[in-house]
Specification:
Elements lengths: L1 H36 L5 H13 L4
Helix pairs in contact: 1-2
């Protein structure tokens, strides 16, 4: 039973880590895709994604 609880704990941990890191990545991907679809520059979407996730929260 303890092994099952450890396995469930690891699954929850890795799921949380995946959600934390994939959410901004998917947001930048969606924003740049919409910009490209509308024939706009994708650099602003990528710059915003880089600034909003790893850089500004650390400041």
């Amino acid at each position: 039973m303890a092994i099952l609880f450890q396995l469930i704990g690891r699954l929850i941990k890795w799921t949380a880590i995946a959600i934390i890191y994939l959410t901004p990545v998917l947001g930048v991907w969606l924003a740049s895709s919409l910009a490209a679809y509308n024939n706009r520059s994708t650099s602003l979407a990528v710059l915003a994604g880089v600034l909003l996730f790893p850089i500004l929260p650390m400041l």
